[in-house]
Structures are given as structure tokens and as C-alpha cells.
Amino acid sequence: MPRRLAYAAAGLILTGSVATPAAAQPLSSISVPRGPDSPGYQLRIDTARLGLSLTRGGEQLLRTASDAFTFDGGVATRVRSVSRDGATVVATADSTAGRPVTLRITPHPDRFDLKWTVGGLAAGQRATHFDLTTSGHWYGGGETSEGKAQPYPLSAGTVDEPEFSPASYMMQEPYFFTSKSVGLFVRTAQPMQVAMAGGRADLTVTNSAEYSSTVFVESNRRAVYDDYVGEVGKPAKSDATDAEYASPLWNSWAQYYRDIDQDKVLSWARDLKAAGVAGHTVQLDDKWESNYGNLTFDPKTFPDPKKLASGIHAMGQKFGLWTTFWINLDSANYAYARDHGYLVRAKGNPAQPCTVTWWNGTAGIIDLGNPQARDWYTGNLRKLMADYGVDGFKFDTRFFDDRCAATGNLTPQDYQKLGADMTDAFDQQGAGIRTHWGNQRYGFVIRAVDADTTWDGLRTSLRRASAISANGYPFVETDMIGGSNSMPPPSREVLVRWAQAASLMPLMYASTSPVTTVDTTTGKPVAYPADTAKLYADAVRTHAKLAGYLKTQVQQAVADGTPIMRPVYFDFPADHRFDTVDDEWLLGPALLAAPMITAGASRDIALPSGLWFDPHTKRVEIGGRTLRGYAAPLDTTPMFVRIGAPGWTELAAKL
Q: Cβ neighbours of residue 615 under 8 Å, at least 6 residues apart?
């Protein structure tokens, strides 16, 4: 017989029937009524083959695939019983492996917690599968791996991330959200596998006995974001200074890659200053060390590091160094670290250090689970600061590798926190640190991973930065302006347009000089036309004009987690034109960025509702429409100021 259970505390109602084996597709449902700050929802449990269907007002929001819950060697099938444990609904199902699958759903006004386990089975793979065809566009997750496309939205392309992990080099979070204002937060400290293709999403956790997640159900995507940040935390501060927001960071990587020496760095820095594009810091990137992990300058290419630092300081800039946690086997420090137990251990053989490959060779990884190892490493960094005048560091590294064994009971996620704690003691100079998986509270600047030196690279880097920002890391920047990835230098147009786009972001991260650079694929110098530096300098000045406005946005992000660079639909939820727009964004509440990120001198611009001031034409445009063929020659960066929004008068006066 059907039974009806009222949950007085939350106004929740469970209806349905406990099925007998002969029952035809029995169904249980949970109804959460609309509240003052929540839209309400209905959740149905398919008992013929364990699955879930989420609706709101009759609209399908989220649905699991036919093989909704799978594990090592099995798939959940017919539900045997549905019961109540307090406010939690418990469904127990059979499986193809002959083991019971227990699903527990705890509803709340704006979300529900979803957990499931497999009886008698040790920790392993647990996967939940979703049908994408009825759930709108999917976003979130963070960056896809280098060399793979970054779809926008994610569900518009193919995502294949077999190593979606706290230990990944990529900025990734186990959090996704949809255009129908549903969010999915997978609660795991272990690696995942994420795939989206063919109208389905496969989200697999590893090394786990339980699949634990929370599904947020809201009336708009910004509310979903706030729910997620409420779980993982907002920035407690920003690790960047006002000066680091106001002008560029210059890093040597894309300018010279590994073909670097002391004279080249000084010449590059002097050219930048003369061109009017110098910033707050000059960072020396890869190949300053004699061997990777030695943490000593190569005496052949850097015979007088103190003189180098002094030369940079004399130009009114700080000096920084690139560093990693990898110690190559040919480094003198490797034997020292190995013999002192400072390296993470090998799986299956704790007597041996773990050996991994990375882009510069074969190495061990410093074990942050060992406080003595951490102190030894940071002591080396402080010696560089004291001996040579180094002001800070670009930490470009993993803090753990899933191919290795963790110390004690530490998880890959724990190593992320240990890395964050360690690097937080140093000036990261606006380069930030790629630590993720719940580390929003540190307030690090986050740079997108390396991108190609092409139009596609520019678009990809902007997509990555936007995804990182929407994951709760508001202090974002693209890959180095102009791209990198060991490719030929960018064209004049790509370099200028990239600088223009970056000028309308929280921070500017630069490398390729707009004066002259080197094509490291041929060894030949590349000189840009004379007006390239002027156009680049214009972008730097535009960004400088935003300094006061950005300072306010940083303060807002620290106060409540509000992303600075955000999708337009966060502020205009009803305008679904922006569901698939990746070349426009809001910088705070008052500035719409619409830079050119393709070849050409004009573009269409979708304006949200309201009145918008155009700094270039000095006209006020009526929103809620699309400006067709907006003129954008190479000296023009399309942007609009939202009249009436906080900060708009300051922007209108300065831009």
C-alpha cells in the first residue's frame, strides 16, 4: 500500500510504495516546497532500475543515465526497498554483481545530499552517470588537460580526464553546474575520472568505499555558485598586492624558454621599460639552475646573480625566480634529499623514493608530509633571497603525484593544503600557485595553464580562466600574454589582442616582448612593427585605469566570494543568449568586456539589459539587443560601462 510521510522540520513529503518483486516500475518521490530563498524541487527514485530524476515545476533539471550507479564489476539494478531514516530516504537495490547497493538521499530546502555504497566491497571505483540531454548546458570542473580542447560549455564538446585529481597539475574542482541552475559537488579527497561525450557525463571516484555528493537546486546560477563557495570557503585575503593588480608581471618563459642567460634577461627588461610596458616584477623562469632541484644558479649562464637582481631593482621592479618540487635524479640535491628521507615514497616499496617523469626529466618529489623536508626546501629558498636579493617565487609544480605513496594517512587533497600552507609564506608576485581542490580560502592568484600562441590559444586561455573563476578562485589571469607552449611567437595581432583581453581581467601576466623576441623553434630573432609596443602599452594603461575599481572588487571577493571575472549570466540570469558566449564577460558589476579574440576589425556584441556607456564612442547604448558589426580596429578594445552599477561613474570618467 502507498504510504505518505511528512517531514515536519523541512516541510518535505515522501510518497510512493515499497515494491514487491512483481510490481511494475514502482516509483518513490521527494517533494520540497518552494521557500523564501529556494525554488523547491521534486526528486523521483526509479525503482525498476535504480536511478534519479530531478524536476522543478514540471521541468526536467537532472536525470541519471540508465546505468546510473556503477562500481568495480557491477551496476545497480532493481530497488528492493525504500525506507526512511529520519529525514533521509534510503533505497536498497540489487546489482549485477550480486551485491546490495544502498542509496541515501537527505533533502534540504535548496539541495540534497546523495550518498551510496556497495555492501561487502572494499574501496575502489564508484561512478555516477548522468544524461546530459535534458539538463541544459554543463559548466565547471575547471581546466581540461593540456593538449585537450576546453569546450564551452563543457557539454558542447568532449571531456576526457582520466586523471581528474587533487594531485593534478591542472586547476580542477569536483564541482559542476548547469544552465538550469543545478550544481553537483562530489565530496572526495581522492582522484576522479571525468568524461562527457555522447549526451552523458560519467563522474567516477577512485579509492573510495562511498560515493558522496551534494546537488544544489537554485533559481539561478549565481545562487548555485554561492552555495558551493559556502561549502568550500571564500578567500580569506588576496595574496597579491595592489601593485600586482595594477601593472603586469613579466616572466621570461615565452620570451626565451630555456635558452636564457643573465645578459638576455637584463636586455629584455630594459626593452620593456623603454617601451612603456614594464610592470611590477621581472621573473626568471626555467633553466636558471645548474640542475633541476639544485636550487643554485648555473654559473655559466648566470655568473653574477646578485648583479642581475640589482639591475632589475634599479629599474624599479622586483626580481623573482621559478621553482618546483621536482628534484631530478642528476641533481646533487637528489642524493641529499633521498638519504634524508625528504622524498615521497614509491607505492609498494616504501624503502625507495618515488620516481616520476615531468616535462624536464625524471625526478623525485619533496615530501611535504615530512616537516623536515619542508623546512629544508624553504630554507634553500630563503637562502636565495638572502644571498642574491630574490624577492619572491613562481611555484610551478605538483605537490604530490598519484603514482606515489602518501605519507601516513594523508590524501592527495591533504598534500594540496600542505603545499598551499608552504607557498603562502612567500611573495608569489602575481604568478600565483596552481593549488586547488578546496583551497579557495587562501586567496591565491591563479594563472591558466600554458596555451598555444594562436587565436585558438587565446580563446582557450580565456575559457580556462573563466572556468577557474567560476570555481571560486576570483583572482585569475590567462596564460602569459601571447601564449607559450614552446611554439613560434604569436603574430602581432594575437599579441596585441591578448594584451587587450588581459587588460580587462583581474591581473596581467606577460612574457613575449612587443619589441623583439626569439623564435626558439628556429633560433631566429623576431622584431615586431614599431606600433606593436604602443598598442601593448595602451592595454597596460587601460588596466592601470582599472586599479581603483579592481581594488574594490578584490575587497568584495574577500567579503563574500564574489567572482571578479564572471559569466554575464551570473548578473543577468534570464538572458540565455550568454549561455554559450565565451568572448564576453563581466569584470565586476559595472564593466562588460567584449575584446576581439579573432582576426578581423569588427564583431557582434550582445548587450545585456540596461543602459551601457561606450568609452570609445562616448555614446550610451540601450541594452537587451545585439550590436552588429561593432567596429574594433587593432587600437580598439570593445568594452561597456553599465550605468547605475556600483563603480560605474569611476569607470566612465577614467576609460
A: 639, 640, 641, 651, 652, 655
pLDDT grade for 3, boundaries at 50, 70 and 90: very low
Task: From 55, 38, 410, select the one nearest 219 (Cα to Cα).
Answer: 38
Angle made by CA atoms 408, 412, 414, in degrees to the nearest 5 = 70
**Other CB atoms closer than 10 Å to residue 633's CB: what's the count?**
9
Q: What is the reported pLDDT for 439?
A: 96
Burial of 21: CB neighbours in 10 Å, binned 0-12, 13-18, 19+: exposed
Question: Rounded to an integer, what distance in angstroms lies between the CA atom of residue 465 and that of residue 468?
Answer: 5
Residue 134 neighbours by CB distance under 10 Å:
16
Element at 14 (helix H, strand E): strand 12-16
The H-or-E segment that residue 334 falls in is helix 332-339
pLDDT digits (tens, 9 = 90+) for 558-585: 999 999 999 999 999 999 999 999 999 9
- Residue listed under C-alpha cell 633560433: 523
Give the Cα separation of 113 and 214 in Å (integer). 4
- DSSP labels for 579-609? GG--S-EEETTTEEE----SSSSEEEEEEPS
Query: What's at 461, amino acid-wise?
Result: S
First and final C-alpha spacing in the chain: 70
Please give the Cα distance from 410 to 619 (Å, whole number): 58
Write out the three cell numbers for 411.
590524501
Secondary structure E strands in 459-566 = 476-477, 509-510, 516-519, 524-527, 565-566
Helix or strand or coil: residue 556?
helix
Q: Are 316 and 247 in contact (CB under 8 A)?
A: no
Per-residue pLDDT band at 147 (split at 50, 70, 90) = confident
132: confidence class by pLDDT, cuts 50, 70, 90: very high
The string of pLDDT tens digits covering residues 319-342 is: 999 999 999 999 999 999 999 999
* Strands, E assignment, 372-461: 392-395, 404-405, 446-447
pTM of the entire predicted model = 0.94
Per-residue exposure over 454-468, b if at least 16 CB sit within 10 Å of its own CB, e if not = bbbbbbbbbbbbbbb
Distance CA 52, CA 428 (A): 45
Mean pLDDT of 412-430: 97
Q: Please, which residues bridge with residue 386 across strands?
A: none
Give a three-class secondary structure readout of 370-390: CHHHHHHHHHHHHHHHHHHCC
Residue 126 to residues 88, 201, 244, 252, 506, Cα–Cα distance (Å):
21, 14, 43, 44, 38
Kindly state the cell numbers that stand for 392. 619572491
Task: Quickly tell me which residue has 590567462 as its cell.
Answer: 478
Residue carrying C-alpha cell 602581432: 492
| Of residues 58, 35, 19, 196, the one with CA closest to residue 108 | 35
Give the SS3 label for residue 574. Answer: coil
Cα separation of 488 and 330, whole Å? 30
Burial class (CB in 10 A: 0-12, 13-18, 19+), 354: buried
C-alpha 417/C-alpha 374 separation (Å) is 13
